[in-house]
Amino acid sequence: MSSSKNPSRSTGSRGRSADQKAAPKKAAARKRVDKADRPGRICPACGGVQPGAEGRAKSSKPTGLRIRQAGRAATARPASAATAKRADSAAAPVEPTAPPAPAEAPAPAPAEAPAPAPARVPVDAPTLIKGIVERVPAALSEAAAGDAPPSSALTAAVRKAVLDEFRTRAAFTGRVAEMDALLWTQPDHGGPAVRASMADHLKALGIRRLDTPDQAEAFVVTEGTGEAFELLRPAYVDELTGKVILAGQLRRIAPDAAQHTTGEDA
User: Fold this and answer.
1) Is CB count within 10 Å lower at the N or C end of the chain?
2) 38-85 pLDDT, tens per residue?
3) What is the pLDDT of residues 81-113, one digit of tens each?
4) Is 2 helix (H, G, I), strand (E, B) or coil?
5) Closest to 44 (Cα-Cα) out of 63, 21, 19
């Protein structure tokens, strides 16, 4: 059979088979590519990834360098971490337990009642004068004040100073007691604000208000008949000296007719 009658065996370009056409492409693919032209290669100088001669994307297949780097990283892991990992993997799984119930908050301790203030011991002028006169000479000698004055002159000076102070206190506390007694006789005792303010002043000055006839010597009965008492004005006592600053006033009334009974017979 003539070759011209069989196109598949012709050596021309139009008569070549498909295998013959793909042969040059396979040969080109098997051709060795320089390292500098390979895509995805790590540059030994800068450490960057080279795009290659054709600018192709990096192949997903790991290179030999990547494999060696991964091996070094695995070898460099701490031995303690590997040991702990093996111990955790070998340990038996622990069944989950129910979370502990929240602890109840401790009950607040009851507040302790404040201790009552100690009762004041009344003082008087003669006791103060005697104590001061006895201590002044020793204080003057320690201070090197020179010659001490005669005892008679010292006693007279101390006596005058102490008595003046007591008179000043008595006058001031008397005025405060009179103002509080006047407000007490008013409707609503002057109002809540006034009552609270006067109570603070009396406490700061050491003045005690008596609105019940428990201490008979602090009240004066003005009028009336009967066995019950009606309070007309409270009494005021100086806690510093124990003396009555302003006497209170009571009125006798019959128990069955009393609208505001303040107590039993004093």
Assistant:
1) N
2) 777 777 777 677 776 665 555 566 677 778 888 888 877 655 565 656
3) 656 566 566 555 555 565 666 666 666 666 666
4) coil
5) 63
AA identity, residue 229: F
| Count of all residues that appear for the chain in the document | 266
Residue 261 tokens, joined: 């009974």
Give every CB contact of residue 166 below 8 A, 6+ residues apart in sequence: 125, 241
Instruction: Name the phi and psi angles at 70, rounded to 5.
Output: -65, -35
Residues 39, 52: contact at Cβ < 8 Å? Answer: yes
What is the Cα–Cα distance from 50 to 53, expressed in whole angstroms? 9
Provide the phi-psi class of 206: left if phi over 0, else alpha when psi is between -120 and 50, else beta: left
pLDDT, tens digit, 9 for 90 and up, residues 174-225: 999 999 999 988 888 778 888 889 999 999 999 999 988 888 889 999 888 8
DSSP state of 45: T
Q: What is the sign of the dihedral through the CA atoms of 81, 85, 86 and 87?
A: positive
Element at 77 (helix H, strand E) = none
Beta bridge partners of 251: 223, 230
Q: DSSP for 99-143, please give it.
A: PPPPPPPPPPPPPPPPPPPPPPPP--HHHHHHHHHHHHHHHHHHT
